[in-house]
Request: fold
Amino acid sequence: MAKTLFQKVWEAHTVRKLPNGQTQLFIGTHLIHEVTSPQAFGMLRDLGLKVKYPHRTFATVDHIVPTNELKEPYSDPIAQEMIEALRKNTKDYGIRFFDTTTGTQGIVHMVGPEQGITQPGTTIACGDSHTATHGAFGAIAFGIGTTQVRDVLATQTLALSPLKVRRIEVNGKLAPGVYAKDVILHIIRVLGVNGGIGYAYEYAGTTFDGFSLEERMTVCNMSIEGGARCGYVNPDQKTFDYIKGKPYAPKAADWDAAVARWASFASDAGCQYDDVKVFKAEDIRPTVTWGITPGQAVFIDEKMPALETLNAADRQTAEDAYAHMKLAPNTPIKGTKVDVCFLGSCTNGRISDLREVAKYLKGRKVSPSVKAIVVPGSQLTAIQAVHEGLDKIYIEAGFEWRGAGCSMCLAMNPDKLVGDQLCASSSNRNFKGRQGSQTGRTVLMSPLMVAAAAITGQVTDAREVFTV
Amino acid sequence: MSLAKITQVKALALAVPGDDIDTDRIIPARFLRCVTFDGLGEHAFRDERTGPDGKERPHPMNSAQAARIAAAKKGVMVVGFNFGCGSSREHAPQSIWRFGFTALVGGSFAEIFFGNSTTLGVPCVTLSKEDLAECDAFVRANPDVEVTVDVAQLTVSAGAKTWKASIAASARDGLVNGKWDPIADLLEGAEPVAKTAAGLAYVAGK
Reply:
């Protein structure tokens, strides 16, 4: 019978059926970070349990680690305490830790792919909702809670129920200035922030075939913003090429067998999907959010919705959003004043993002009214960017060049909005208060749109600022 | 590890309206700067409840009803659709539970939030849109009437009203059988786990 990748991976990792009807699913790769793991290790100690498969858990620090202060002890004692706790826990239990001193630390969803730990046909779990990122490689990757982190540490398994699979096909070529970020913002806008509840999203079609792994990661990353717990792209030659030579990639004689195995996990032709949605790449334009959920988005040249065009439930959320964002319905979002520009995050903090923006930023200047920061998602990305001289381009343009971490995506660190500042952000969430100020405002967009906002001091169509 | 069988939660209720309430709103990230979940209860919905000036805002969680629930350490929160979306932080259901809520009734729940809550022994049941609106209105109009979330019978009832409720079968099974924390079952599977692991080339180191 023809099967989807989701079904094949699920079956290969099924241990047994649990009494409550759920599946005990083997988690091949477990990723942990400093914020959602300490309580799990505490629970483990309380229960007198050990880490069952320590070599299948990998740790790094990203959420709380400051990006403007690279020497320890950090001036934030809680950040210092949390990194120390992870050092102790990984040492006590024999877990590999990509620490800040190794040159390999970074946002957990960047470290996995960079190290070749993220592989097709595997199951991955992490106490972070953006774990779906790893689906770009054809892995089934779940964001989990802290008690589940305990479950994986203690048993290397989770109690889960299978998901339905929705194939989301995007076909055609994106116009210049339109990026993977616009594709996922558009998908979420159309299918809704809760449209994916109960589903895994399979992203497919010629647009995805043409995407690099980094572009696929940007899309899979935001699956959770559409309500889908995981999202994936079927593995292909690009996937294998990306993994080849990475530290944890299969070597020598094992390589060919691994590739054959990985390829066998791809969804079969003629398999049944629970739902299919089809989009045309040429219909997608640069997209920005105007509200407080990632689904509240418009094309940059559209007006924000008039309240009377919305149904009752959406209207209530929209009224709340307009009040928080201090924006007016039925007006253009283009031209809205921007105070802060943030380029980074597990959505768009990769080397390809930094290269793409740098290409256009050369010789341009950040508006004096804007604070702009660029935060490479990982130390390896930062090292590569410096090697290519990208840091100089950003610094000359007026961006602050930072160390690796989550930074202003969730503002658990010193990078926070102040008051009602409006941030043009390449991150993934525009929730109220998300960027560290209760009244702070976030407009999500692609990295190039962030750069255009930085230069003009406004929410701008990048295609009018740069020759794309 | 023996756990309570959670067949029914009968308690005073509080309506916390709105759709797409994300976990950043339930517990802002600055409260994740901790290595235990202790003390999270007092910060549930912190930025919804307190303005930037530090003063209390009008919010259901600041009401006398919320204070009664906190004192009783049991309560039913009636919410909207897609509640608990966004970040996977277990700190969100932990804060609601530690505040005093022991069951949630809503239109729909984000999956990670739902799983995190179930594992704490906090049932999250759903009602149809119409029934939810009726339940919400009833709760506001009758703050002294206890609401019963019956996980076994799959109903929510209050006064003379009874609404048909839903919850994932596996969550219901775990709650009513006192197996809502799966760790005991997962540990029991150690042998078949080892077998599965041995059959996976990447885990076996190939």
Notes: Chain A has two domains: 5-264, 294-465.
